[in-house]
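2024-03-11 09:14:02 DEBUG pipeline.ingest accepted 1 chain
2024-03-11 09:14:02 DEBUG pipeline.ingest length=408
2024-03-11 09:14:03 DEBUG pipeline.predict start
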Amino acid sequence: MSDPRLPFDIIAVIVDTLGQEQNMATLKSLSLASSAFSPLCRKYIFATIVLEAPYAEPQRDIGRFVELFCTNESDVPNYVRTMVYRLTKFDLKTEYFTQSLPALMQKIVKVESLTIVSLGMGRRDWFEIPHPLRQAFLQFMRLPTLTHFKIRKYLNFPLSNIISCTSLISLAVDRVHTLDGEPPVDVSSPPRIQEYATGRGFSGRGFFDRFYQMSNTKLANGSAALDFTGLKKLCTQFENDNDVSVIRQLLKATQCLEVLDLEVASGITFKDLAQMTTTSAGTLKTLHVRVIGVNTEQPDPSLPDPFFGLCEELEAMKNCNVVETITVSVGVPRPAQCLNDDGWGKLDRVLDQPGWPKLKHVALNISIDSLSRHRETWKRTMDAIPEKQFAGLLNNKMVDFVFTFSTF
Protein backbone atom coordinates (compact mmCIF):
# COMPACT_ATOMS: atom_id res chain seq x y z
CA MET A 1 0.00 0.00 0.00
CA SER A 2 1.48 3.34 -1.05
CA ASP A 3 -1.08 5.88 0.22
CA PRO A 4 -3.38 5.33 3.19
CA ARG A 5 -7.06 6.14 2.80
CA LEU A 6 -7.57 7.19 6.41
CA PRO A 7 -7.11 10.89 7.34
CA PHE A 8 -3.59 11.65 8.55
CA ASP A 9 -4.82 12.73 12.00
CA ILE A 10 -6.52 9.36 12.52
CA ILE A 11 -3.36 7.54 11.46
CA ALA A 12 -1.33 9.60 13.94
CA VAL A 13 -3.71 8.68 16.77
CA ILE A 14 -3.49 4.98 15.86
CA VAL A 15 0.30 5.06 15.76
CA ASP A 16 0.53 6.98 19.05
CA THR A 17 -1.76 4.44 20.71
CA LEU A 18 0.36 1.55 19.47
CA GLY A 19 3.49 3.35 20.62
CA GLN A 20 2.13 3.94 24.12
CA GLU A 21 1.23 0.26 24.31
CA GLN A 22 4.76 -0.70 23.16
CA ASN A 23 3.27 -2.76 20.31
CA MET A 24 6.49 -2.85 18.32
CA ALA A 25 5.52 -5.73 16.04
CA THR A 26 2.51 -3.84 14.66
CA LEU A 27 4.45 -0.59 14.40
CA LYS A 28 7.16 -2.28 12.35
CA SER A 29 4.56 -3.76 10.02
CA LEU A 30 2.86 -0.38 9.60
CA SER A 31 6.15 1.36 8.86
CA LEU A 32 6.63 -1.00 5.90
CA ALA A 33 3.03 -0.72 4.69
CA SER A 34 3.14 2.91 3.58
CA SER A 35 5.63 5.74 3.27
CA ALA A 36 3.14 7.92 5.13
CA PHE A 37 3.29 5.62 8.16
CA SER A 38 7.06 5.35 8.33
CA PRO A 39 8.02 8.67 10.03
CA LEU A 40 5.23 8.26 12.59
CA CYS A 41 6.27 4.71 13.45
CA ARG A 42 9.99 5.43 13.58
CA LYS A 43 9.43 7.81 16.46
CA TYR A 44 8.58 4.78 18.59
CA ILE A 45 10.56 2.02 16.88
CA PHE A 46 13.87 3.82 17.32
CA ALA A 47 13.05 5.69 20.55
CA THR A 48 15.07 3.16 22.58
CA ILE A 49 18.32 1.60 21.39
CA VAL A 50 19.88 -1.21 23.44
CA LEU A 51 23.43 -2.16 22.52
CA GLU A 52 24.35 -5.57 23.84
CA ALA A 53 26.38 -7.66 21.41
CA PRO A 54 25.04 -11.24 21.30
CA TYR A 55 27.45 -14.10 21.75
CA ALA A 56 26.75 -15.36 18.22
CA GLU A 57 28.18 -13.21 15.45
CA PRO A 58 28.22 -9.96 17.44
CA GLN A 59 30.19 -8.00 14.85
CA ARG A 60 27.72 -8.73 12.07
CA ASP A 61 24.71 -7.52 14.07
CA ILE A 62 26.48 -4.43 15.38
CA GLY A 63 27.70 -3.79 11.84
CA ARG A 64 24.12 -3.63 10.58
CA PHE A 65 23.27 -1.17 13.31
CA VAL A 66 26.21 1.07 12.43
CA GLU A 67 25.35 0.93 8.74
CA LEU A 68 21.77 1.97 9.47
CA PHE A 69 22.86 4.98 11.47
CA CYS A 70 25.79 6.13 9.40
CA THR A 71 23.95 6.37 6.09
CA ASN A 72 23.90 10.05 5.18
CA GLU A 73 20.22 9.92 4.22
CA SER A 74 19.20 8.24 7.47
CA ASP A 75 16.96 10.18 9.84
CA VAL A 76 17.01 7.44 12.48
CA PRO A 77 19.33 9.33 14.92
CA ASN A 78 16.70 12.06 15.25
CA TYR A 79 14.26 9.61 16.86
CA VAL A 80 16.56 8.15 19.53
CA ARG A 81 15.66 9.22 23.08
CA THR A 82 17.01 6.33 25.20
CA MET A 83 20.42 4.66 24.87
CA VAL A 84 21.35 1.54 26.84
CA TYR A 85 24.89 0.11 26.68
CA ARG A 86 25.61 -3.29 28.20
CA LEU A 87 29.30 -3.84 27.58
CA THR A 88 31.59 -6.82 28.17
CA LYS A 89 35.36 -6.75 28.10
CA PHE A 90 35.19 -8.44 24.70
CA ASP A 91 33.00 -5.70 23.23
CA LEU A 92 35.55 -3.07 24.16
CA LYS A 93 38.16 -4.76 21.96
CA THR A 94 36.10 -4.82 18.75
CA GLU A 95 36.46 -2.23 16.02
CA TYR A 96 32.78 -1.42 16.16
CA PHE A 97 32.90 -0.34 19.80
CA THR A 98 36.23 1.45 19.56
CA GLN A 99 35.73 3.27 16.23
CA SER A 100 32.39 2.86 14.44
CA LEU A 101 30.18 3.21 17.51
CA PRO A 102 31.72 6.49 18.76
CA ALA A 103 31.37 7.87 15.23
CA LEU A 104 27.67 7.14 14.96
CA MET A 105 27.06 8.47 18.49
CA GLN A 106 28.05 11.89 17.19
CA LYS A 107 24.85 11.86 15.13
CA ILE A 108 22.55 11.25 18.12
CA VAL A 109 21.88 14.60 19.77
CA LYS A 110 18.49 14.29 21.48
CA VAL A 111 19.13 11.57 24.05
CA GLU A 112 17.03 11.91 27.20
CA SER A 113 18.07 8.73 29.06
CA LEU A 114 21.49 7.03 29.17
CA THR A 115 22.34 3.70 30.85
CA ILE A 116 25.86 2.25 31.00
CA VAL A 117 26.25 -1.23 32.47
CA SER A 118 29.36 -3.40 32.77
CA LEU A 119 28.46 -7.04 32.18
CA GLY A 120 30.33 -9.97 33.67
CA MET A 121 31.78 -10.77 37.07
CA GLY A 122 33.00 -7.91 39.21
CA ARG A 123 33.39 -4.25 38.37
CA ARG A 124 35.34 -2.85 35.44
CA ASP A 125 37.58 0.20 35.49
CA TRP A 126 35.95 3.17 33.76
CA PHE A 127 39.22 3.94 32.00
CA GLU A 128 39.27 0.51 30.37
CA ILE A 129 36.63 1.89 28.03
CA PRO A 130 38.42 3.13 24.88
CA HIS A 131 38.96 6.89 24.91
CA PRO A 132 36.73 7.62 21.84
CA LEU A 133 33.82 5.75 23.45
CA ARG A 134 34.33 7.47 26.82
CA GLN A 135 34.29 10.84 25.07
CA ALA A 136 31.10 9.89 23.26
CA PHE A 137 29.49 8.97 26.60
CA LEU A 138 30.59 12.29 28.04
CA GLN A 139 29.09 14.07 25.04
CA PHE A 140 25.75 12.39 25.77
CA MET A 141 25.97 13.39 29.42
CA ARG A 142 26.47 17.03 28.46
CA LEU A 143 23.46 17.16 26.16
CA PRO A 144 20.82 19.66 27.33
CA THR A 145 18.18 16.97 26.67
CA LEU A 146 19.65 14.34 29.04
CA THR A 147 17.48 14.01 32.15
CA HIS A 148 18.06 10.38 33.26
CA PHE A 149 21.40 8.65 33.85
CA LYS A 150 22.16 5.19 35.25
CA ILE A 151 25.56 3.56 35.68
CA ARG A 152 26.37 0.13 37.12
CA LYS A 153 29.50 -1.81 38.13
CA TYR A 154 32.37 0.58 37.38
CA LEU A 155 35.50 1.58 39.26
CA ASN A 156 37.20 4.99 39.13
CA PHE A 157 34.18 6.78 37.74
CA PRO A 158 34.70 10.57 37.87
CA LEU A 159 31.92 12.32 39.76
CA SER A 160 32.70 15.38 37.66
CA ASN A 161 30.94 13.57 34.80
CA ILE A 162 27.69 13.75 36.75
CA ILE A 163 28.15 17.41 37.56
CA SER A 164 28.46 18.02 33.82
CA CYS A 165 24.90 16.68 33.33
CA THR A 166 23.34 20.09 33.85
CA SER A 167 19.81 18.97 32.90
CA LEU A 168 19.90 15.77 34.98
CA ILE A 169 16.89 15.10 37.20
CA SER A 170 17.13 11.31 37.72
CA LEU A 171 20.31 9.51 38.80
CA ALA A 172 20.76 5.79 39.51
CA VAL A 173 24.13 4.43 40.69
CA ASP A 174 24.83 0.78 41.50
CA ARG A 175 28.16 -0.71 42.61
CA VAL A 176 30.20 2.25 41.46
CA HIS A 177 33.40 3.54 43.04
CA THR A 178 34.60 7.04 42.41
CA LEU A 179 37.88 8.31 41.05
CA ASP A 180 40.25 9.59 43.73
CA GLY A 181 41.94 12.94 43.44
CA GLU A 182 40.00 14.37 40.52
CA PRO A 183 40.34 18.14 40.06
CA PRO A 184 37.43 20.47 40.90
CA VAL A 185 34.90 21.09 38.16
CA ASP A 186 33.01 24.31 37.60
CA VAL A 187 29.78 24.56 35.66
CA SER A 188 27.39 27.46 35.37
CA SER A 189 24.27 25.41 36.08
CA PRO A 190 24.79 22.24 38.19
CA PRO A 191 22.13 19.51 38.12
CA ARG A 192 19.20 19.59 40.51
CA ILE A 193 18.52 15.94 41.25
CA GLN A 194 14.85 15.02 41.72
CA GLU A 195 15.18 11.22 41.73
CA TYR A 196 18.14 9.36 43.22
CA ALA A 197 18.52 5.56 43.41
CA THR A 198 21.46 3.64 44.79
CA GLY A 199 22.40 -0.02 44.61
CA ARG A 200 24.62 -2.08 46.84
CA GLY A 201 28.34 -1.68 47.34
CA PHE A 202 28.76 1.92 48.43
CA SER A 203 30.99 1.34 51.42
CA GLY A 204 34.16 0.25 49.60
CA ARG A 205 35.85 3.56 48.95
CA GLY A 206 33.36 5.88 50.55
CA PHE A 207 31.17 6.50 47.51
CA PHE A 208 28.38 7.96 49.60
CA ASP A 209 30.83 10.19 51.46
CA ARG A 210 32.31 11.51 48.23
CA PHE A 211 28.92 11.96 46.63
CA TYR A 212 27.43 13.89 49.53
CA GLN A 213 30.62 15.90 49.81
CA MET A 214 30.03 17.08 46.24
CA SER A 215 26.55 18.26 47.26
CA ASN A 216 28.22 20.45 49.88
CA THR A 217 30.92 21.72 47.51
CA LYS A 218 30.29 25.26 46.31
CA LEU A 219 30.97 26.33 42.74
CA ALA A 220 32.31 29.72 41.73
CA ASN A 221 28.77 31.14 41.47
CA GLY A 222 27.98 30.00 45.01
CA SER A 223 25.65 27.15 44.07
CA ALA A 224 26.13 23.54 45.20
CA ALA A 225 27.93 21.16 42.82
CA LEU A 226 25.03 18.73 43.31
CA ASP A 227 21.72 20.12 44.51
CA PHE A 228 19.43 17.76 46.47
CA THR A 229 17.08 20.36 47.95
CA GLY A 230 14.53 19.50 45.25
CA LEU A 231 14.82 15.71 45.68
CA LYS A 232 11.39 14.08 45.28
CA LYS A 233 12.24 10.37 45.20
CA LEU A 234 14.99 8.46 47.02
CA CYS A 235 15.64 4.71 46.73
CA THR A 236 18.52 3.49 48.87
CA GLN A 237 19.78 1.08 51.56
CA PHE A 238 21.12 1.19 55.10
CA GLU A 239 23.98 -1.33 54.89
CA ASN A 240 26.20 0.00 57.65
CA ASP A 241 26.43 2.86 60.15
CA ASN A 242 28.28 5.03 57.65
CA ASP A 243 25.40 4.75 55.16
CA VAL A 244 22.95 5.74 57.89
CA SER A 245 24.98 8.84 58.72
CA VAL A 246 25.30 10.01 55.12
CA ILE A 247 21.68 9.29 54.19
CA ARG A 248 20.58 11.15 57.31
CA GLN A 249 22.40 14.26 56.05
CA LEU A 250 20.98 13.77 52.56
CA LEU A 251 17.40 13.50 53.84
CA LYS A 252 17.82 16.57 55.99
CA ALA A 253 18.90 18.52 52.91
CA THR A 254 15.70 17.68 51.05
CA GLN A 255 12.65 19.89 51.31
CA CYS A 256 10.04 18.22 49.11
CA LEU A 257 10.61 14.44 49.22
CA GLU A 258 7.50 12.57 48.01
CA VAL A 259 8.69 8.94 47.76
CA LEU A 260 11.12 7.15 50.08
CA ASP A 261 12.13 3.57 49.23
CA LEU A 262 14.42 2.25 51.94
CA GLU A 263 16.00 -1.15 52.58
CA VAL A 264 17.61 -2.04 55.89
CA ALA A 265 20.19 -4.81 56.21
CA SER A 266 20.32 -7.13 59.22
CA GLY A 267 21.88 -5.41 62.21
CA ILE A 268 20.77 -1.90 61.19
CA THR A 269 17.52 -0.27 62.36
CA PHE A 270 15.19 2.52 61.27
CA LYS A 271 16.27 4.60 64.26
CA ASP A 272 15.73 8.36 63.73
CA LEU A 273 13.82 7.89 60.47
CA ALA A 274 11.10 10.27 61.67
CA GLN A 275 13.68 12.91 62.49
CA MET A 276 15.44 12.40 59.15
CA THR A 277 12.25 13.10 57.20
CA THR A 278 11.10 16.11 59.21
CA THR A 279 11.93 18.57 56.43
CA SER A 280 9.63 16.65 54.07
CA ALA A 281 6.79 15.99 56.53
CA GLY A 282 4.42 18.06 54.41
CA THR A 283 5.27 16.34 51.11
CA LEU A 284 6.17 12.68 51.82
CA LYS A 285 3.30 10.60 50.37
CA THR A 286 4.79 7.16 49.76
CA LEU A 287 6.96 5.05 52.05
CA HIS A 288 8.33 1.68 50.89
CA VAL A 289 10.52 -0.23 53.36
CA ARG A 290 12.20 -3.63 53.21
CA VAL A 291 13.93 -5.42 56.09
CA ILE A 292 15.85 -8.68 56.47
CA GLY A 293 15.23 -10.53 59.74
CA VAL A 294 17.63 -12.31 62.04
CA ASN A 295 19.01 -15.71 61.16
CA THR A 296 17.70 -18.08 63.82
CA GLU A 297 15.83 -21.39 63.77
CA GLN A 298 14.44 -21.61 67.31
CA PRO A 299 11.75 -19.42 68.92
CA ASP A 300 13.19 -17.02 71.45
CA PRO A 301 11.24 -14.46 73.50
CA SER A 302 14.21 -12.10 73.32
CA LEU A 303 14.15 -11.94 69.52
CA PRO A 304 14.47 -8.39 68.19
CA ASP A 305 11.60 -6.40 66.74
CA PRO A 306 10.79 -7.89 63.30
CA PHE A 307 10.21 -4.35 61.97
CA PHE A 308 13.63 -3.15 63.21
CA GLY A 309 12.25 -0.08 64.96
CA LEU A 310 10.00 1.04 62.11
CA CYS A 311 6.82 1.12 64.20
CA GLU A 312 8.40 3.43 66.78
CA GLU A 313 9.42 5.81 64.00
CA LEU A 314 5.93 5.72 62.49
CA GLU A 315 4.54 6.55 65.92
CA ALA A 316 6.82 9.60 65.98
CA MET A 317 5.60 10.64 62.51
CA LYS A 318 1.96 10.47 63.58
CA ASN A 319 -0.10 13.70 63.50
CA CYS A 320 2.45 15.45 61.31
CA ASN A 321 2.37 13.75 57.91
CA VAL A 322 0.57 13.46 54.57
CA VAL A 323 1.54 9.84 53.92
CA GLU A 324 -0.90 8.06 51.59
CA THR A 325 0.83 4.70 50.99
CA ILE A 326 2.99 2.50 53.23
CA THR A 327 4.36 -0.83 52.03
CA VAL A 328 6.48 -3.05 54.26
CA SER A 329 8.34 -6.17 53.14
CA VAL A 330 10.01 -8.34 55.78
CA GLY A 331 12.35 -11.17 54.87
CA VAL A 332 12.84 -13.84 57.53
CA PRO A 333 15.72 -16.21 56.71
CA ARG A 334 14.79 -18.45 59.68
CA PRO A 335 11.13 -17.82 60.58
CA ALA A 336 11.18 -18.22 64.36
CA GLN A 337 10.00 -14.60 64.58
CA CYS A 338 6.65 -15.67 63.12
CA LEU A 339 5.82 -17.29 66.47
CA ASN A 340 5.86 -13.92 68.19
CA ASP A 341 2.12 -13.29 68.64
CA ASP A 342 2.51 -9.57 69.30
CA GLY A 343 5.38 -8.64 67.01
CA TRP A 344 3.56 -8.20 63.72
CA GLY A 345 0.53 -6.55 65.30
CA LYS A 346 2.64 -3.53 66.28
CA LEU A 347 2.16 -2.17 62.76
CA ASP A 348 -1.63 -2.47 63.10
CA ARG A 349 -1.64 -0.68 66.45
CA VAL A 350 0.39 2.23 65.08
CA LEU A 351 -1.50 2.78 61.82
CA ASP A 352 -5.08 2.02 62.92
CA GLN A 353 -5.45 5.17 64.96
CA PRO A 354 -5.88 8.92 64.39
CA GLY A 355 -2.85 10.77 63.11
CA TRP A 356 -2.82 9.48 59.53
CA PRO A 357 -5.29 11.79 57.76
CA LYS A 358 -4.21 10.92 54.20
CA LEU A 359 -3.44 7.22 54.60
CA LYS A 360 -5.19 5.10 51.94
CA HIS A 361 -3.04 2.02 51.30
CA VAL A 362 -1.05 -0.26 53.63
CA ALA A 363 0.62 -3.47 52.45
CA LEU A 364 2.66 -6.00 54.40
CA ASN A 365 4.54 -8.89 52.83
CA ILE A 366 6.33 -11.49 54.96
CA SER A 367 8.66 -13.84 53.11
CA ILE A 368 10.45 -16.84 54.62
CA ASP A 369 13.24 -19.13 53.51
CA SER A 370 11.68 -21.72 51.18
CA LEU A 371 14.25 -24.29 52.33
CA SER A 372 13.28 -24.12 55.98
CA ARG A 373 12.33 -27.53 57.36
CA HIS A 374 9.45 -25.85 59.23
CA ARG A 375 8.03 -24.26 56.09
CA GLU A 376 4.52 -25.75 56.39
CA THR A 377 4.31 -24.79 60.05
CA TRP A 378 5.34 -21.23 59.28
CA LYS A 379 2.81 -21.07 56.45
CA ARG A 380 -0.06 -22.00 58.79
CA THR A 381 1.18 -19.36 61.23
CA MET A 382 1.29 -16.77 58.47
CA ASP A 383 -2.22 -17.56 57.29
CA ALA A 384 -3.53 -16.79 60.77
CA ILE A 385 -1.69 -13.49 61.20
CA PRO A 386 -4.12 -11.08 59.43
CA GLU A 387 -7.21 -11.91 61.52
CA LYS A 388 -5.26 -12.28 64.77
CA GLN A 389 -2.96 -9.27 64.52
CA PHE A 390 -4.40 -6.88 61.91
CA ALA A 391 -8.08 -6.71 62.81
CA GLY A 392 -7.89 -2.94 63.05
CA LEU A 393 -6.59 -2.30 59.54
CA LEU A 394 -8.77 -5.06 58.05
CA ASN A 395 -11.89 -3.33 59.41
CA ASN A 396 -10.70 0.20 58.66
CA LYS A 397 -12.96 1.49 55.86
CA MET A 398 -10.60 4.37 55.10
CA VAL A 399 -7.53 2.19 54.48
CA ASP A 400 -7.01 -0.58 51.93
CA PHE A 401 -4.91 -3.18 53.78
CA VAL A 402 -3.23 -6.04 51.92
CA PHE A 403 -1.32 -8.89 53.61
CA THR A 404 0.74 -11.33 51.55
CA PHE A 405 2.99 -14.24 52.39
CA SER A 406 5.74 -15.55 50.13
CA THR A 407 8.90 -17.65 50.10
CA PHE A 408 12.36 -16.90 48.76
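2024-03-11 09:14:41 DEBUG pipeline.report Residues 72 and 125 are 35 Å apart (CA to CA).
2024-03-11 09:14:41 DEBUG pipeline.predict end
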